[in-house]
Amino acid sequence: MIVERPSGARGDVDMGWLQSHHTFSFGHYYDPAWMGFGVLRVINDDTVAPGGGFAPHRHANMEIVSVVLDGALAHKDSAGNEGVIRAGDVQWMSAGHGIEHSEYNGSDAAPVHFLQIWIQPERLNHAPAYDQKHFAPDARRARWATLVSPDGADGAIAIRQQATLRATRLLPGDAVGAALDPARRYWLHVATGEVAVGERMLAAGDALGFIAEDGALELRGVGATSDVLLFELPM
To answer: Is 36 buried (19+), middle (13-18) or exposed (0-12) by CB count in 10 A?
Structure first.
């Protein structure tokens, strides 16, 4: 089964300092048909204006992954982690039994555009944990780079779930493939640009879910510069 999630069907939030698009139910946006996709619970496409940000707030028992697409995002949490993540950086915070953090635009002149992703953990109430790594976008042109995985192989960040997140960058004419295992779920999210997935054309914010599908995905860049995320999830 292939699930389609067009960009325009997402939940929209406009708070002035925050422009956000929610792939799944989150906060004031609630749709019982879109509570997540397996263990993938949240994909929020956030743009935060200079001077804006999320005041300190608490999370528990969630794997939170932030992928910065443009700009700089400042982070501080109650476990003592503090810093700024920039375009190409990936941040992982395992909330565990509970952690408080804040996120602010790290620039006073330019907006920050990032994806905040929540994945339900495999086990509950562990101690909070944190990691941050840089994945050069140009190094994943027309190839998949593994950003997070259960074991941290190939330089990925190790998370507490049997889930893998890969990313690729496609310029017009670039192509990349991916094999589907019918025993796993997959979620394909176009972060920027425009790509062809087989006969389908997907623009920024569009997504496809794959359940019990096999064979191969073929992606081709058709827009300017396209960044695509592929989640491999337990069934």
So the answer is: middle
25-58: per-residue pLDDT in tens? 999 899 999 999 999 999 999 999 999 988 888 9
Radius of gyration of the chain, Cα coordinates, nearest whole angstrom? 17
Q: Which two tokens stand for residue 145?
A: 């780079």
Residue range 9-21, pLDDT digits in tens: 999 999 999 999 9
Q: How far apart are CA 218 and CA 148, in angstroms?
A: 22
pTM of the model: 0.96
